[in-house]
Write a structure and sequence with these properties.
Elements: H1 2-6, H2 9-17, H3 22-41, H4 50-67, H5 73-85, H6 87-97, H7 101-112
Helix pairs in contact: 3-4, 3-7, 4-7, 5-7
Length: 114
């Protein structure tokens, strides 16, 4: 899957040779948490709403930086599917962001990459 997400074995290997600084990883993780909260706060809003799409666009940008990938769409689509179908993930994430938030976030991500 990693090679698929990076687009080639060479790109995946290059990203592994240049790992992101631990401090930056923490900062990116905090930004992703903030993005997830913003999306959860939009729950009930149409996932095609421009405001929702802007937030998912921020998620896209941060994920590209964190994972050192030019295109995170394949990774994000898989994540969106997991958010919508993985009950364990939903239980954990919903305990943080509110009941139903995880599935909504998955729908928003899926709409962004459609």
């Amino acid at each position: 899957k990693i090679v698929e997400w990076y687009g080639s074995k060479e790109k995946a290997m290059e990203a592994q040779k240049n790992p992101t600084d631990a401090g930056l990883v923490t900062a990116y993780q905090k930004r992703i948490t903030a993005v997830m909260q913003k999306l959860a706060d939009k729950m009930g809003t149409d996932v095609n709403d421009m405001g929702v799409k802007e937030i998912v666009g921020e998620y896209d940008f941060v994920a590209k930086q964190l994972y050192q990938m030019d295109d995170v769409s394949a990774l994000m689509k898989e994540l969106a599917a997991a958010y919508q179908t993985n009950e364990t993930m939903q239980k954990v994430q919903d305990s943080i962001y509110g009941d139903g938030a995880t599935a909504y976030i998955g729908q928003a991500i899926q709409a962004f990459y459609a």
